[in-house]
Write a structure and sequence with these properties.
The complex is a heterodimer of chains A (661) and B (161). Chain A is an alpha+beta fold and 661 residues long. Chain A folds into 5 domains: 138 residues, Four Helix Bundle (Hemerythrin (Met), subunit A), CATH 1.20.120; 118 residues, ACT domain (Alpha-Beta Plaits); 57 residues; 180 residues, Heat Shock Protein 90 (2-Layer Sandwich); 139 residues, OB fold (Dihydrolipoamide Acetyltransferase, E2P), CATH 2.40.50. Chain A has 24 helices and 22 strands. In chain A, helix 2 packs antiparallel against helix 5. The radius of gyration of chain A is 32 Å and the shape is globular. The relative contact order of chain A is 0.05. Chain B is mainly β and 161 residues long. Chain B has a single domain, classed as CheA-289, Domain 4 (OB fold (Dihydrolipoamide Acetyltransferase, E2P)). The chains are: A alpha+beta (661), B mainly beta (161). Chain A: Keywords: ATP-binding, Chemotaxis, Kinase, Nucleotide-binding, Phosphoprotein, Transferase, Two-component regulatory system.
Chain lengths: 661, 161
């Protein structure tokens, strides 16, 4: 089939179109703030490419919807119509609807739904497309009542006969527009479920000029194996929203395996690609060229070498080292994408949220070009959304309250990304009311997190909202919501090897600072010797290392050891015991204790000595073996041997589990 | 013959074992490995195979034999099963055999001296007997794998909650 050959371009089309939609959205939002004609042009161009692409690649529903949007934009472009809020609103909804269509297209579901049809008509109405024919068409739809309600309830054994209800539904969908509602009432509980039987039934609303015979033909083969009623559709009321949701249900229910497989295929496709700027690739090619030249130069030494050329050899080796390092940096750079792709979703979010809440918010985005590892980028979106939502919802005050406080009615929300040292810093700051100190302290007292609110610094109070369990529904109202799910935000960031800090000044606003590592693939670590073995401890989790006198360590009943560190007692984990290393130093005073921290907990790791610092390329142990407790991965040392990387968070969890046991 | 399978034969404590040659990725001299904590005694550790971290098991220890010194003929056979690679340390490699499907006989129950779970069958070449290894079962018995998977799943649930 020809569709197979064209399907290979779908992915590129989806990617480009989604980018186009992003561009449309940001241009629309800019237009909302009073933009110029060039913006209209760029929106028009994006819509036009999507229309052309979707028609070419066989998505007529998408093309039809975009066509209407394009017509409307055309009128704006020609100056026949002034752009106003309602048009922008309509176009934004079109963008959302198209996104939904792309999602469905990627998982192979039918594209059109009631929402898109509805939107198409609204767009057409706005265009003034109500030429007699079109009007008749729109009017004809409800009036003709040319539709059927089909109750289709397969007998339990129908699947065994090789009949797939999903196929029947697809055939029906080919006849006209379908609204399907799955009836789950006969689905037994999980323990009684026989997956080889069909427990689902469907109520199907089919719109379109279809004869009853045509429907009967679809069900011809299963007539004896199902309960089937076909009634004419009397009132073609707009389909209720929940029913629309259920369109996907048959796929998930009956064709469970098929549906899941398809989704899995779609999502694995998603994982695959990175778009790389052409100059990065050119840079790589240059570097590889240099490397080849250096290699050729070094190759000469193989032919004839004498001591007089030693200096040249050293020079060549130094060059080789330099080129290898830059090549490494460039290759890592391919994974680096600008954080703008995450920031881009915020103008829309801020606009929608502030409208809903009746607040006025100005969003400042700074440093969109700061680059981050793709993996980090994908996972930082949700925590950021959470923080932005919190800032607007609870941080910024209502306009009248702001005026009363002598502030500008329009609140400012600022997102800023920049490099600091080897890290990326993302700051989310608002000029709202700041944290409600009294309420947080009261809540913390009530939860028993602190003993008294006296003398707590603002930072310490801010820390409290990151405590797990601090976010309850009660807090949301008491505390104007600050702290909702903050522990989740922190955990997500910590999982990426980063950290979140909060700074708040009453009446002046709140700043969240997220610090992230540049990349997950390379970590800075200290090599620690234990017995004859070598382990890498990630630098980010090291607080400091101390040499303890023998009497500084207290043994606790049950075999634990504690030592005093800056006024607190920390447990000691002896790495040689944990990892079963032979010939390690046993006496505390002979070795070193490395104080490490993760999830806000500190412990001491007892090792023989620290050997040196190095960058470690993280390799997976699980790829060929399995997970090992206390080990997060492995890396390859300069001599080609393997060293294991200590999983500090994992060790701390093990330690606390041991305490609990 | 279409049903002929080639086996790489390796020596281990005066016995000859066969490994399906399609599963063999490479043969390399014995090199020291990095020990992994909390691993079964027969897993010697991991080695660096051109950037991939590959676990190595000692077939002697796997079969409950004692390990003598690693010497010049000791080799690590890198095997790929289901996309996973692992190394198997044996005394020496010896031969490549063509074995017809009907020449493979089932393993008789030999009591407890040798764990027959890891054997697919045996065949004879002249007066030599060759035990054919089931490579899939060498690294981890099925139940251990399932237990690991279950524990991982439990860990994930905790992480989400």
């Amino acid at each position: 089939m020809s569709s197979i050959s064209i399907a290979q371009f779908h992915k590129v089309f989806f990617e480009e179109s989604l980018e186009g939609l992003d561009a449309m959205e940001s241009a629309l939002l800019a237009l909302d703030d009073g933009g110029d004609a060039e913006l209209v042009h760029s929106i028009f161009r994006a819509a036009h490419s999507i229309k052309g692409g979707s028609a070419t690649f066989g998505f007529p529903d998408m093309a039809a919807l975009t066509h209407e949007a394009e017509s409307l934009l055309d009128q704006v472009r020609d100056g026949r119509r002034a752009i106003d809020k309602s048009i922008i609103e309509l176009m934004l909804r079109t963008v959302d609807c198209l996104r939904g269509m792309f999602d469905r297209a990627q998982s192979g579901q039918p594209l059109a739904d009631a929402d898109s049809e509805n939107l198409k008509q609204q767009l057409a109405a706005a265009v003034g497309h109500n030429t007699p024919a079109a009007a008749a068409k729109i009017a004809a739809k409800p009036a003709a009542s040319s539709g059927w309600i089909i109750h289709f309830r397969p007998h339990a054994g129908m699947l065994a006969g090789g009949n797939d209800p999903l196929r029947l539904l697809r055939e029906l969908a080919a006849l006209g527009q379908l609204v399907v509602e799955a009836q789950l009432d006969r689905v037994p509980t999980l323990d009684a479920l026989d997956p080889s039987e069909c427990h689902l039934g469907w109520r199907i609303e089919l719109t379109g000029a279809v004869s009853q015979d045509a429907i009967k033909t679809v069900f011809e083969w299963v007539e004896d194996e199902c309960d089937l009623t076909i009634e004419p559709l009397v009132v073609a009321a707009p389909p209720p929203a929940p029913a629309v949701e259920a369109v996907a249900a048959p796929a998930a229910g009956a064709g469970g395996a098929a549906g899941t497989a398809r989704n899995a295929a779609a999502s694995s496709n998603d994982a695959g690609s990175v778009r790389v700027a052409i100059d990065k690739i050119d840079g790589l090619i240059d570097l590889v060229g240099e490397l080849v030249i250096t290699q050729a130069m070094l190759d000469q030494f193989r032919e004839d070498f004498d001591a007089s050329r030693l200096a040249l050899l050293q020079h060549g080796l130094a060059q080789l080292a330099r080129h290898t390092r830059s090549l490494q940096e460039s290759v890592m750079g391919i994974r680096m994408l600008p954080i703008g792709s995450v920031f881009n979703r915020f103008p829309r979010l801020v606009r929608d949220l502030s409208q809903k809440l009746g607040k006025q918010v100005k969003l400042d985005l700074v440093g969109e070009h700061t680059e981050l590892d793709k993996t980090v980028l994908e996972k930082i979106g949700d925590p950021l959304v959470h923080l932005v939502r919190n800032a607007i919802d609870h941080g910024l005050e209502m306009p009248d309250k702001r005026r009363a406080a002598g502030k500008n009615e329009v609140g400012t929300l600022r997102l800023e990304a920049f490099h600091r040292g080897g890290s990326i810093v993302v700051e989310i700051s608002d000029d709202g009311a700041g944290l409600n100190r009294e309420a947080i302290v009261a809540k913390a007292l009530q939860k028993g997190l602190i003993k008294s609110g006296e003398g707590l610094s603002d930072e310490a109070v801010g820390e409290l909202i990151f405590q797990p369990g601090f976010s309850t529904a009660a807090v949301t109202t008491d505390l104007s919501g600050r702290g909702v799910g903050m522990d989740v935000v922190r955990r997500n960031v910590v999982d990426l090897g980063g950290n979140v800090a909060i700074k708040s000044r009453a009446g002046q606003g709140t700043t969240f600072t997220i610090t992230l590592p540049l990349t997950l693939a390379i970590i800075d670590g200290l090599r620690a010797a234990v017995g004859g073995e070598c382990y890498i401890v990630p630098l980010v989790s090291i607080v400091e290392s101390v040499q303890l006198p023998a009497d500084a360590v207290r043994s606790v009943t049950g075999g634990g050891e504690l030592f005093r560190f800056r006024g607190e007692y920390l447990p000691i984990v002896r790495l040689h015991q944990q990892f079963g290393c032979a010939d390690a130093r046993q006496q505390i005073e002979e070795g070193l204790v490395i104080v490490v921290e993760a999830d806000g907990t500190q412990i001491g790791l007892f090792v023989d000595e620290l050997v040196g610092q190095q960058q470690a390329v993280v390799k997976s142990l699980e790829a060929n073996y399995r997970r090992v407790d206390g080990i997060s991965g492995a890396t390859i040392l300069a001599d080609g041997s393997v060293a294991l990387i200590v999983d500090v968070a994992g060790l701390i969890r093990l330690q606390s589990r041991r305490k609990a046991a | 013959m279409s049903d002929q399978v080639q086996y790489l034969t390796v020596n281990l404590a005066h016995e000859e074992y066969g490994v399906d040659i399609l599963a063999v990725r490479e043969i390399r001299g014995w090199t020291p490995v990095t020990r992994i904590p909390q691993s079964p005694h027969y897993v010697l550790g991991v080695l660096n195979l051109r950037g991939a971290i590959v676990p190595v098991i000692d077939l002697r220890l796997r079969f409950g034999l004692t390990r003598e010194d690693y010497n010049a003929t000791t080799v690590t056979v890198i095997i790929t099963v289901a996309g996973r690679q692992f190394g198997v340390v044996v005394d020496a490699v010896s031969d490549v055999l063509d074995v017809a499907g009907d020449a493979i006989r089932p393993v008789p129950d030999m009591g407890t001296t040798v764990d027959t779970e890891y054997l697919k069958g045996l065949t004879s070449v002249g007066d030599r007997m060759v035990l054919l290894l089931d490579a899939d079962k060498l690294l981890q018995p099925q139940d251990a794998q399932m237990l690991d998977a279950a524990l991982d799943a439990a860990g994930n649930v905790k992480a989400v909650a």
